[in-house]
Amino acid sequence: MDSAPVILARALGDFTQWALGRALAAGVRRLYFLSRDGWYPFRLGEALCRSWDLPIECRYLYGSRRAWRLPLAHRDPARLVGQLCGKGGGATLGDILFQAGLSPREAGAAAASLGLPQELPLSPGQRRELAPRLLVCPAFLHPMEAASRQALGPFLGYLRQEGLEEDIPWAVVDSGWMGSTQDTLGEALTLLGRPGSPRGYYAGLYRAPRRGQWEGFFFQPGERLAIQAGFEPSLWEAAFAAPHGTVLGYGPRDGGFVPLLGEARSSPAAARLEEAFTQWGERLARQPRPRDLVSHARRDLPGLWEELRPLMAHPTGEQAALLGRLPFSQGPRERLGERLAPRLSQGELAGSCLLPRLLGREAASSWLPGSAARSVPQPEKWFAAFDRLRLARALSFGLREGRER
Q: What's the number of CA atoms in the CB half-sphere (13 Å) around residue 372?
C-alpha cells in the first residue's frame, strides 16, 4: 500500500485512541465526533469501543460553520459579519452572502445595494473594508436576521434531539484549529439551558476556545511550535472528510430534525484512503487494548510526526499526485472539480509565498507543498518558502496567545 494512506491511517489511529483515553480519564461517557472530518475518527472510535468494551458511546454530530453560526447571528450581527469578512468567510461577496443565509434573489439585491459584483475575488483588506458597510446595509441585515431567526429552532431542535442537553458527561472530538466551533456550541448550550460548559478533544489548536475545557493531540496554543510550523490543516481535513456533502442547516422530518446536506463529492483518492483507514481500524480492533490509551498514543507521537511532517510539508510527487486530487474547497460554496492541491504556475507559487501573503494576496492552493510537488520537477525551493510561511503563522499565533494569557 502507498505510504501516504498508511501514514494518515496511523495518525487517525493515534488521535482516536488518545481522544478515547482522555475521555476515560475524565469520566466522559459520550463522545460527539463533529462532521465532516470527524467521520473516520467516529467510525474507528465506535469500532474500538465495541472491541475493547470501553464504557463510551460514540455519536456523529452533523454541523458546519454555516449551520451553527447562522442561527445565532441575529443575537450579534457584528460578530457574524466579522467572521464572514475574516479568513474563513469566503473569497467573494457571493460567498459571504451565502454564509449569511441570503437567497439568490436577496444576495443580488444586497450586491446591488453595495455596488459590488458577487463573484469578484476580494482581498483581505477589501473584506475588512466591507464589514462596516454590511452592518449598515438594510438589504443585507434584514434578510440575514430573518434567515437567522428561521434557522434557530431547527438548530436547537437537532442538538436537543441528539442529546446535548442530557445530564450525561460528554465531549466533542474535532480537528480544531481556531477554537470557534466550541465557542459557538457553548452559546447554543446556553440557549438550551444546559448547565456547565463544553469540553473538546482536538487534533490541534492554534487558538484556545473561550468557553469550556479543551485539549489538543498534536499541538495546543503556544505549545509545540515545531509541530505547528509543519502542520497542514487543509490536508488533514481533506483526508478525513466524510463522503457526504457539507451541512447547510437543519430541517424537520418525521417529528424530528435532520441535517440538510450539500452535494456529495467522491474521488478515487478518497476511496483509497477509506480502504486504508478501514484496514488499519480492523487491525487495531483485533489487538489487545493498550493499558493506557493516552500514554500509548503519546509514545507513538514522535515517530508518527517523523513520517507525517514530510508528507504534509515535503511530499513526494507520488504522494502529492494522490492526495492533491482529493476534493476540497477553499470557500464555503463547494464547486465541482475543486481539488486540494491543483497544479500551479511558477507565478502562482511565487504569489503564495510569505511576502505576497503579508501584502494581502490569497494562496492559490489549499495545500501549497502538494501543488509544488505536482507542478515542478524540483520543488525544494518552494518547500522551503512554504516552510517559512507556516513558521510565520505559528509564531504569530504563539505571540498572540502569549499576549492574551
A: 25
